[in-house]
Amino acid sequence: MGRLKQFKESYFLYSFLHDKVAIVSLVVLLVLLVMGIGAPFFAPHDPYDTTTIDILDAEIPPVWLEGGNPAYTLGTDDQGRDLYSTMLYGMRISLFIGIGAVGMQAVLGIILGLMAGYFGGKIESLLMRMADVQLSFSTMMVAIFLSAIFQAAFGVARFEEMAVPFLIMVIGLAEWPQYARTVRASVLAEKKKEYVEAARVIGFSPRRIMWRHILPNTLSPILVISTVQVANAVMSEAALSFLGLGMPVTKPSLGSLINSGFEYIFSGSWWITLFPGFLLVLLILVINLLGDWLRDVLNPKLYKG
């Protein structure tokens, strides 16, 4: 009860309740998360069930346009799949890849950032030079390189089966330096404080000091960067899928949906690209708005007691 009362009286909750943008962003994000995760319950059709898909139903316009079908509220794509249902399933895949990639980034970045900041010296120089080298390559370059190797080694069919873990690995490996640099900077500031010196005097091991004492005091910047990185990871997945390096057409994400409908956008079937594109922009926007709010609230310089 004490912690609950403390939370109710906290500046964090006060700031949230007095920020309409943050409230609306959180509500929209929660709705999108629930609908994405619960796609099998909210989607009227299953885009993975080929027995229910008819190619003759391809490119049916939204229900409010001439030629629309009440069974397909937002129309159908070029394969005859219900676009609304496909978008929900696609958003679920995009969110899964985004959250999974950020989890991988966080694990790698936190471990390497803690080691670099705490031990310093040659270990810090080596790890930071690794981060510099990694940052010199974009996510796209890493994806093209790894996908070429993967497809050459296992074939295109196997690549399509392993698309989700492949994208998580690619985006995770490409973006971990963001965490490593942030954690390292926080550790450099924390390890000079008295509680760390006291832990050393008591005889605690470096591992315990790093994970039990220093890491909890670096969670604020980690939380902020995680929010931003989820949006970046979702956007990276969409870009890779749009370029044909991500999810296959049979297992659509928002990026692959935009890609599949792009060639039809000027032939009249604009909804195949426009609706998934709008959903992707909305998802990234609300995540970034929440990230901006978190950054402002958790910034000690802006803290008002």
UniProtKB/TrEMBL annotation:
Entry keywords, A to Z: Cell membrane, Membrane, Transmembrane, Transmembrane helix, Transport
Domain called ABC transmembrane type-1: residue spans: 91-291
Matches recorded under PROSITE patterns: ABC_TM1
GO biological process, one term: transmembrane transport
Transmembrane segments: 21-43, 93-121, 133-156, 270-291
Record's bilayer topology term: Multi-pass membrane protein
UniProt main location, coarse: membrane
CDD domains for the chain: TM_PBP2
InterPro entries, per database record: BP-dependent_transpt_permease (IPR050366), MetI-like (IPR000515), MetI-like_sf (IPR035906), OppC_N (IPR025966)
GO cellular component: plasma membrane
Signal peptide residue numbers: none
Location of this chain's protein in the cell: Cell membrane
Family under the similarity heading: Belongs to the binding-protein-dependent transport system permease family.
Identification of the protein by name: ABC transporter permease
Organism: Desulfoplanes formicivorans
